[in-house]
Amino acid sequence: MSGILKKIGEPSYTLLEYVVLITLMTYVLTPLLWLLETSVNTDPVPYLSIPKGITIDHFIAVLTNRPITGGYAAHPVYMTRWIVNSLIISGTTVIIVVILAVLASYSLSRLRFRGKNLLMTLILLSGFMPRMAMILPLFQLCRTLGLVDNLIGVAIVVASGTLPTQIWILKGFFDQLPRDLEEQAWICGCDRVSAVFRIILPNVGPGLAVVAFMSFLSGWGAFTIPLILIRREYLFPISLGIASVFIHNPGEIGLVVDYGPTCALAVLYAIPSIALYILLRERLMEIRLARLEVR
Amino acid sequence: MVEITLENLTKYFGSVKALDNLNLKIHDKELMVLLGPSGCGKTTTLRIIAGLEKATSGHLYFGNKLMDKVPVRERNVSMVFQSYALFPHMKVFDNIAFPLVIAKYPKDEIKKRVKEIAEILRIDDLLDRKPHQLSGGQQQRVALGRALIRKPTVLLLDEPLANLDAKLRVEMRSEIKRLQRSFESTAIYVTHDQVEAMSIADRIAVLKDGQLQQVGTPDELYHHPDNIFVAGFIGTPSMNLLDCSFDEEKGVLDFGSFTLDVPENIKPLLKGYSEVIVGIRARDLQVSKEKMPDSIPLEVYTIEPLGEETIIILSSENVRIRVVTHVEFKADIGEKVWVSFDLDRMHIFDKKTEKAIV
Questions:
Q1: Interhelix angle for A205-220 vs A259-293, to 10°?
Q2: Does A112 lie at the interface with B, CB-CB under 8 angstroms?
Q3: Considering only CA atoms, which of B149, B151, B95 is closest in space to residue B127?
Q4: pTM for the whole structure
Q5: Using CB atoms within 10 A of its CB, is residue A293 exposed (0-12), middle (13-18) or buried (19+)?
């Protein structure tokens, strides 16, 4: 606070700085405020307004599996179900990515084998490739494997998209960890696997956190993959659900949107990202320190 | 608690030869130092003994047991890395206890032994700390504790003192020697510091470019170096090595600007050699302002007073000689002084093979 006061006292570019900052903040925060306002408004309308009254009823409706009819919709929707779907997709993505990324990046970091550089290049390339470019084979593959209209199927495809990047990130953490530690563990009597679990993984905690964080977000934010792979409305993740409400009420083209619950759902949709960030913030900060900490 | 035999060990890293047909026997309960400049293969040797590296060819025996294919964890070796490699996420207690935990010792036993060893190493008040809360010397002790706790057959130490300050280094090296004695482990200690090697070793193996130069007690290495490398590497200040030629007819060593008579008993040994290198330690030379019998005149080049004693570097046209003298000897740069050689303590090497002749 004293920093700001001091700044104001200085006859510098302070005013200009604030103008720029306020403009930027307006730009970034207006939609968010709009969303928040609508989600608590007793009489939600599709434009920014002064709420007549404040209610948390929309949130309760979304969270208690109350059917949301949206006026003239053909049939009610259950938004709670969408939240659960999103959680299933994200959670499964995290599990798949963390396990596979640990195995792959450890091998790439520590083992010597033929064709390793080629493999690493391929992994990197496949990470750059947009998933949508491969959507036809992916879709056919999923259909053959019975993974259409299957949340785990979505998670598998989403995980495959984010995995290459996560492998590279985690490999960086493994590379940073001195080999001495692992060798010392072997000398103390560990085999390779127990050395990884007892010594390596506890010391790449921040790396694991980053990978878990990013893969959660890729599952949570996934839109195109579920759009292709999920047909049934009760299997929609939140992203698809919100979009479907605004495009047309599920089941039937309609013009009436239930703004209150939908905006409440959108607010809830934003929470995990923020919450995870706050939870992991310290770990994320540690990354920069990780290099210093060993030895 | 075992004799270690290295038999024709050769190690390539790609096309680089790190070890060249190394043969070495390390006696039971001995503290053997592997000494050499960096890149000489000493750490590679240590890592092969630990099992962290596989030799390209050759064999390793603990006693009569062939160890080539025995995995690291079954060798019952302990190692202290230069970096100490303490596990950052574990408390000191857990670090020291780690080998016993892996070996599934009962909890009470572990507690007892950690306490014992922590007392010996005087770190019993640090057991609840994390490694990064310790000073370098304390970390070193923890690493030693972890190495010693399961009473290893072989104790390997890879430059364990390199990261400590000079004072602590001197303190710890005598401590390591004492511990090694009381634990009766066969120990192999890698260092590039010859003073450290001399002070701690039962025997020293000097390595250069992957080749064994000489094995012997510190005394043997100091007084009877096998070749020019060992002669120049061991001892502070390092030995004066002077190019000269042997004149068989006159029986003198010709240094260009001066000559030295060769003692009668050495003459027959030098028969057939012409180009030789004379090695003489700075402490085996006497310097004086007056002419002494058999002395040669040289000019003072620089003077380095070290407190107790002074190192004087003398020069004539093509030679430069280091002499250690008492601190009371004063001379000016450029002054002419007289130096006499203690010929009985002179080493003579063949210039071609670099091997010792005398």
A1: 160
A2: no
A3: B95
A4: 0.79
A5: middle
Name every chain A residue with its beta carbon within 8 A of the beta carbon of B132. 293
User: 3-state class of B132 per DSSP?
Assistant: helix
Q: State the sign of the Cα–Cα–Cα–Cα dihedral B118, B123, B127, B131.
A: negative
Q: How far apart are CA A120 and CA A117, in angstroms?
A: 5
Residue B269: is its pLDDT beyond 90?
A: no
User: In chain A, what are the domains?
Assistant: 2-55 (no CATH), 79-293 (1.10.3720.10)
Residue A78 buriedness (CB in 10 A; 0-12 / 13-18 / 19+): middle
- Tens digits of residue pLDDT in A220-244: 999 989 998 988 888 889 988 888 8
DSSP string for A26-76: HHHHHHHHHHHHHHHBSS--SS----SSB--HHHHHHHTT--B-TTT-SS-
* Backbone conformation region of residue A286, classed left if phi is above 0, alpha if psi is from -120 to 50, else beta: alpha
Of A96, A293, A276, A99, the residue nearest A203 (C-alpha): A293
Residue whose C-alpha is closest to residue A273's, from A218, A224, A235? A218
Q: Confidence class of residue B192 from pLDDT cuts 50, 70 and 90?
A: very high
User: What is the Cβ-side half-sphere exposure of residue B297, based on CA atoms within 13 angstroms?
Assistant: 5
Q: How far apart are the first and last CA of chain A?
A: 37
| Cβ-contact B127, B82 below 8 angstroms | no
Q: Please, are residues A86 and A239 in contact by the beta-carbon 8 Å criterion?
A: yes
Closest among A144, A272, A258, A294 to A220, alpha carbons compared: A272
pLDDT in tens, B25-82: 999 999 999 999 988 999 999 999 999 999 999 999 999 999 998 999 889 899 999 8
Alpha-carbon span B29 to A137, nearest angstrom: 67
Q: Which amino acid is at B283?
A: R
Amino acid identity, residue A17?
E
Helices and strands in chain B, H and E counts: 9, 20
| Chain B residues with a Cβ under 8 Å from any Cβ in chain A | 50-52, 71-73, 77-79, 81, 83-85, 87-89, 98-99, 102-103, 132, 146
Locate the chain B residue with the closest alpha carbon to A200.
Answer: B87
A295 touches chain B (CB under 8 A): yes
**Maximal C-alpha separation, chain A:** 72
What is the set of domains in chain B, with CATH numbers? 4-233 (3.40.50.300), 240-350 (2.40.50.140)
Instruction: Quote the ipTM score.
Output: 0.86
Integer angstrom CA distances of residue B123 from B81, B91, B117, B146: 19, 12, 9, 12
- The stretches of A52-198 forming alpha helices (DSSP H) are 57-63, 79-110, 116-128, 135-144, 151-176, 179-187, 192-195
Answer yes or no: are the C-beta atoms of B295 and B287 closer than 8 Å. Answer: no
In the numeric block, which tokens belong to residue A261? 């619950």
- Positive or negative, the CA dihedral B278, B357, B344, B293 is negative
